[in-house]
Specification:
The strands form three sheets. This protein has a six-stranded mixed β-sheet. Helix content is about 45%, strand content about 15%. It is built from 15 helices and 13 strands. It starts with a helix and ends with a helix. Helix 2 packs across helix 12 and helix 14 packs antiparallel against helix 15. With about 400 residues, the chain is of the alpha/beta class.
Length: about 400
């Protein structure tokens, strides 16, 4: 009898052990279903290639987080993202985080879509963290003394070239690139990059209250001359435009049909791994003193109904920021925190030589500029007259928003 009871006891213990293991495995596998979902809207800034970069960061977050799960949605441009935010608000569809250009802060503030981040930043990171980020990366993050976004990704325009055919210095100005295109065809992006080139101004001010911040001057003789020169080069096939659309955009360069391409630095790894020839790189500069305006995006916390929601969203933003700081340079980005051990000459480029990621523009100005430039390049419209009309339209937009 005792022996029988002992066997029964052993069987019961084994069953209990298996039940515990089964429960733990069930709990582990079902964890993804009990995570709190955070909805994130991501602007691709006109480049579908950015989608893969963002999906990689979100996937890393989702695998590592036990509390939260990011559900991403994508918009082709900042303008499209803003329209989606306005629509979602009208139908009570909730987004929690938006990733888009820092220059959209004024528009987002006007629409009362974003929450200030000061208390969270200073509580979790303190002032030393903010001081460790170069001031140029913090441009357009604040308004009326409050911080509304954090820099997330920063990239630069890079000149990639076939080293077996040509040799370049580590830095090349846009004027030098134009001269180079006379003998060596160049692939150049036609979207946001071209827009930044046209509206770029010096000197640049990060003071939101300055009149400089409120103006965009495109009707200048040297800009008209530059556009005409580009138009001429484009017509004879030496300056070829392409729409940034992931790796497919790079095919003419990778197939060695064109020896030089201007592309975002986050394509660096893809170009290096896919090219069958030696690749050289150079930082693209506006002029001798300043690099091309930085590109990238900031993270904004969208307005919610409770502090509990804000706390959850901030924890997600914090982890995304850590992932960006960890992976930024590996993905061809400019490190948010200065890295003295950097082996990438693009990342080492003097920070005080970087131009701001955007001039004082907004989504309406961007659309106006892109439309007019496209008409000049593709439809043969007169540059001088078109730029003059463009300036009048930009002035109306700026005055309307700041009145």
């Amino acid at each position: 009898m005792k022996k029988r009871n002992k066997v029964i006891m052993i069987i019961l213990l084994i069953l209990c052990a298996f039940s515990s293991l089964f429960y733990l495995e069930y709990k582990r596998k079902s964890k993804v279903f009990i995570k709190k979902e955070i909805s994130m809207l991501v602007s691709l800034d006109g480049d579908n290639g950015k989608k893969e970069l963002m999906e990689s960061a979100i996937e890393e977050f989702n695998k590592g987080s036990e509390e939260y799960y990011i559900k991403p949605s994508f918009a082709l441009s900042d303008s499209h993202a803003i329209l989606k935010l306005i629509y979602s608000k009208s139908v009570n569809m909730q987004y929690h985080i938006v990733s888009m250009g820092a220059e959209q802060l004024h528009t987002l503030r006007n629409l009362d879509l974003v929450k200030e981040l000061d208390e969270y930043l200073l509580e979790d990171f303190d002032i030393r963290f903010l001081n460790s980020i170069d001031p140029i990366f913090m441009a357009h993050t604040s308004d009326n003394g409050n911080i509304y976004s954090v820099p997330y990704i920063r990239n630069s325009q890079v000149i990639f070239y076939d080293e077996s055919r040509i040799q370049l210095e580590d830095n090349i100005s846009f004027e030098e690139l134009m001269e180079l295109s006379e003998k060596n065809p160049v692939l150049f992006p036609s979207g946001q990059v071209f827009t930044d080139l046209v509206v770029y101004e010096e000197p640049y001010s990060t003071d939101e209250n300055s009149s400089k911040y409120r103006s965009v001057t495109v009707n200048l003789p040297y800009k008209v001359e530059m556009i005409n020169k580009i138009k001429e080069r484009h017509a004879n096939g030496s300056f070829v435009f392409y729409r940034e659309n992931g790796v497919l955009s790079l095919e003419p360069f990778l197939k060695r049909e064109i020896p030089i391409i201007a592309a975002n630095s986050y394509y660096m790894d893809k170009i290096n791994t896919r090219a069958s020839f030696p690749i050289g790189t150079a930082v693209l500069k506006i002029n001798e003193d300043k690099s091309f305006p930085l590109q990238g995006s900031n993270l904004y916390m969208l307005r919610q109904n409770s502090k509990e929601e804000y706390d959850s969203i901030w924890r997600v933003i914090t982890e995304l920021l850590k992932i960006s700081i960890k992976n930024g340079e590996q993905q061809g980005g400019i490190p948010l925190i200065k890295n003295s051990d950097s082996k990438n000459h693009i990342a080492e480029y003097p920070y005080n030589s970087f131009s701001s990621m955007a001039v004082s523009q907004n989504s309406k100005v961007e659309l106006l500029v892109e439309t007019v430039i496209n008409n000049i390049m593709q439809n043969g419209e007169d540059a001088e007259e078109s730029i003059k009309e463009l300036q009048d339209k930009i002035n109306s937009v700026i005055e309307g928003e700041w009145e």
